[in-house]
Amino acid sequence: MRILVLMLLALVQAGTPPPDAPTATIAHGRLKASLYLPDSKSGYYRGARFDWAGQVSSLTWKGHEYFGQWFDSYDPTLHDAIQGPVEEFLTADASSIGYAEAAAGGTFVRIGIGVLRKPAGETSLQRFGRYEIVDPGKWTTTPGKDRITFVHELKSPDGYAYRYRKVVRLAGDTLTIEHELTNTGSKAIVTQVYNHNFFMLDRKGTGPDVLLRLPFAPKAARPLEGKAEFRGKEIVFLRPLEPKETVFTEVEGFGAAATDNGFEMENRATGAGVRMTGDRPLAKLLFWSHPKTVCPEPYVDASVEPGRTTAWKLTYTFYEPKTGSAATR
Question: Are 318 and 179 in contact (CB under 8 A)?
């Protein structure tokens, strides 16, 4: 038994998923994607930050890879031990539904995760922390050849309840993520949602070969410290990021139209490109990067009144740009 425990510990430290983590593969034409499926007991990701549905561990198109494991150490309850175009629901003050009104030891809701316990003495949501999941809700996962449908149904003791449906679909050269959130409770759900987009274009490091292009001229709200630069409508890296270095800033300059909710990202050395478009106006836009992943994070409003349904969609189209260094554009 001791040997088995040591072997499992070594696998976790190496970033290897548990052998019983449920998975599914979908494909259409030149696109193929592998996904980890939500499961409260054996799921690859059981953290308290990101929506458990739709985690894409690998997506290949014409020989290019777009996602993968960007973190070094794996733990199923670690807040960001997750891959692919994953999403987090937050209130405008970076908290969660019902958190502010919950008493010590009471409960609050994280969409796509469940009903969580608020620890005694805690006064603000610890987004990167671990929480007791009191009720993970009910997950229904329906795989198909080219799509997977996830449905999460949850009812909290505090009047919040919902039915959340997400469809990850491949068609042609496109990945779409379709969302529907139905408020089945007695209280309004007031929330924003963003996609973290943990891109790893051909799993190469973050540096001058990677280019991000926006529909508007962005402005950095924070200094980029000589690691990246905003040029016109582009964000470029001035040098490769060193281990443990990151780039982070809020992005300003977008307008009220949904056409500003999108980007193009390219690795001009390998020829991998992706274009993302959203069908709702931006509420906020963040940009975060790590030596292994580049992450534009578009936020939209997903609030919904009792008895109503709200819907939104993200579309990712894969393409090949001209090869060559992005730094020379």
Answer: no
* All domains in the chain, ordered by first residue: 11-95+142-148+164-328 (2.70.98.10)
Categorize the per-residue pLDDT at 13 as very low, low, confident or very high, splitting at 50, 70 and 90: very low
User: Residue 175 and residue 179: Cα distance in Å, rounded?
Assistant: 13
Q: Residue 178 is encoded by which pair of tokens?
A: 């379709």
- 18 pLDDT higher than 90: no
Reading the block at residue 126, the tokens are 């610890």
pTM value is 0.93
Q: What is the DSSP string of 42-63?
A: T-S---SSS-STTEEEEEEETT
Q: What is the mean pLDDT of residues 285-312?
A: 98
Strands 262-267 and 272-278, sheet pairing: antiparallel
| Residue-wise burial string across 71-95, b where 16 or more C-beta atoms lie within 10 A, e elsewhere | beebebebbbbbbbbbbbbbbeeee
Dmax over CA atoms of the chain, in Å, equals 60
